[in-house]
Amino acid sequence: IAKELKNELEKIDDYQSFQNLKSKYLGKNGIIKSLMKNLKELDEEQRKNFGKNINELKNIIEEFFEEKLIILKEKERLLKEKESWIDVTIPGSKRKIGKISLISKTIRDIEEIFVGMGFSVAEGPEIENSWYNFDALNTPEWHPAREMQDTFYLSNDKKYLLRTHTSPVQIRTMLSNKPPLAIISPGRVYRKDELDATHSPVFHQVEGLFIDKNVSIAHIKMYLEYLAKKLFGDKVTILLRPSYFPFTEPSFEVDISCIFCEGKGCNICKNSGWIEILGAGLVHPNVLKSVHYDPDVWQGFAFGMGVERIALLKYNVPEMREFYKNDIRFIEI
Ligand code: PHE
């Protein structure tokens, strides 16, 4: 009987069959119990022997079941372990996290450079009164320079418009502050340009204004060369080329030397060795007068740059549209 049980036990490996087997041998109607029943029919001597044997058998059987139970439990434990096993050596999956756009990053970089030189950051509305956007900046309605910046007007009388540059912030700041002052004005600006590789009807500018006594072109050179070196590297130098803006006199276009893109293709400035990054000049006396500053006492310089253009050059971005497409591959640069 014990041998048979051993065979049967070997074949099973789940609790249900274990229980079935157990009741077959040790249960109420099990083999041991039925052997016990037979005892009654034997005489005393035989009963003693037989009883002893049955008890031994019972002990052996119980032992077998105990052993088997241990094996089953161990098996279950191993299975559970396998299911909940964690390989701590597998590299973790990389999570995507948000990134600041190149435009915001460039604006912050420029702000940081000027704040470090004592400038404050000033902001103003994107919907402007044309007086702030043009008239106060020496650009009355008849002035041909108004056409330099093709404007989105918001009213038929051309009184309200989307600002074409952040220069109106400078007018607002001068009207509400006394000189001397040094500010930069970052922000969104609008012009009727078709979206193409280098233009967008909405883009960003950082303009700057510095008002003090005895301000000269030497100040422009010093501040803007510092800006260029901080943005594009220490080897970069700047070139002032004469230009025209109604609100500055004299006016310049400011180039940086193409050293900054050496080894990076430099496609954009193949020929001359210089590339334009901003406009600048000494504040026109008429602008100072329109905010009631005395031009015989106060002078100033102003400058303005397109943020997309700076980012395009600095990060070697092939075209303006990339900034607005939200293409993940681009954003991850
Ligand atoms: N406001 C000019 C523009 O939008 C830039 C500029 C600002 C030029 C200040 C000279 C001085 O193009």
From TrEMBL:
PROSITE patterns, per the entry: AA_TRNA_LIGASE_II (PS50862)
Gene Ontology cellular-component annotations: cytoplasm
Aminoacyl-transfer RNA synthetases class-II family profile domain sequence ranges: 110-313
Domain of life the protein comes from: Bacteria
One term of GO molecular function: tRNA binding
Binding site for Mg(2+): 249
SUPFAM superfamilies membership: Class II aaRS and biotin synthetases, tRNA-binding arm
Subunit text: Tetramer of two alpha and two beta subunits.
Protein name according to UniProt: Phenylalanine--tRNA ligase alpha subunit
